[in-house]
Structure formats: structure tokens, C-alpha cells
Design brief:
Length: 75
């Protein structure tokens, strides 16, 4: 039974690090894990969607709607 899921809060300036992170998870993630969930601010959604589509298409993408662009401070 899949009971674990990795949650990643990211933003556009961290995307160069997010891509190898997702590639590593895709290669090494065990069968007991659900695909990771990546959370980004709504202004970073389209770039995140493109990155996830080419690195780990099974990953889930969620957005956080905020009035302030907080970048890594929201994590």
C-alpha cells in the first residue's frame, strides 16, 4: 500500500534545483511512495508545469494563491 508522499514547496528561482531533485526521485523512489507533490505560487504555475511535464509527469502540482510574492519565504 502506498502511504508516503514527498511534498516540495518551490518557486521559480529554485527551479534549477527542482529539476535534478525530481529526476532523482523518479529514478530512485520506492514503490511505497506516491508521486511527489510540488507546491508553487500561482505566478510560477506555468513554468513549474513545463518543468514537471519533462522531468516527472506523474508528479502532482498544486498552487498557493497569495497576494504577496514571497518566493522561498512561504516554505
Amino acid at each position: 500500500m502506498k502511504e508516503h508522499q514527498i511534498f516540495i514547496a518551490s518557486y521559480v528561482k529554485d527551479f534549477p534545483f527542482l529539476e535534478p531533485c525530481l529526476r532523482s526521485l523518479k529514478k530512485n523512489q520506492g514503490p511505497e511512495f506516491l508521486p511527489p507533490m510540488v507546491n508553487v505560487d500561482e505566478c510560477d504555475f506555468f513554468e513549474a508545469r513545463k518543468l514537471i511535464a519533462r522531468t516527472f509527469p506523474e508528479a502532482q502540482l498544486s498552487i498557493e494563491i497569495s497576494r504577496y510574492r514571497q518566493g522561498n519565504l512561504r516554505a
